[in-house]
Design brief:
alpha+beta; 2 domains; 6-stranded antiparallel sheet; 3-stranded antiparallel sheet; 9 strands; binds zinc ion
Length: about 210
Amino acid sequence: MIRIGTGMMRIKKYHDYGIICENCGRNHQIFYVYQQYFHILFIPFFPLFMRTVRCQCAYCNDTLNLKKKEEYLSKAKKPFYLYSGIIIVVGFIASVIVVNTNIQKQKREFVRNPVVGDVYGIVRREKDTITSYYLKVTGLESDTVNLLHGALQYNGYVSSMMDTDYFVKGDVLKVSKSDLQSYLDSGIINSVDRNYDSYSRFRVEK
Ligand SMILES: [Zn+2]
């Protein structure tokens, strides 16, 4: 269960030297402003309406003097950290969008300018079934891209090649660059991998 609730947090401390303490006659009062806030998992998401102020003499700790209470109560600004939760959530969503936009951009760039070794994650959607497989660029001839087919076909989506999968040598598929582009536009090319690790399954050809 997610813990949600409210809390009170001290957001401001003011020193006031203009008020004479009714108890000891000295002039140093401290005002503490507290703000109610809403939290999820103890991370403040936003401030609520309730706000209180406490005042204390710095010398005798007398708390009766509440002369400037209202002034300090309204003067204290709501600190940004009371919005931490919202900032975290918005920041996370924004970074996901930025990362995803960059991935899409790079994918587009890779398909526009293929190089030998590029691996395309292919997704075929037919009625209710989704199958996936991999294609690897093995050669380039002016406007034609030569591709090797992966040995396996997967049900549904895949994020990596299985250990039993490899690219089948000699079985070359020829596709024009403009066809590649249309595969990307129609979502048939789901992923493009370049600069993968030296131990990647993508390197295996048999
Ligand atoms: Zn005092």
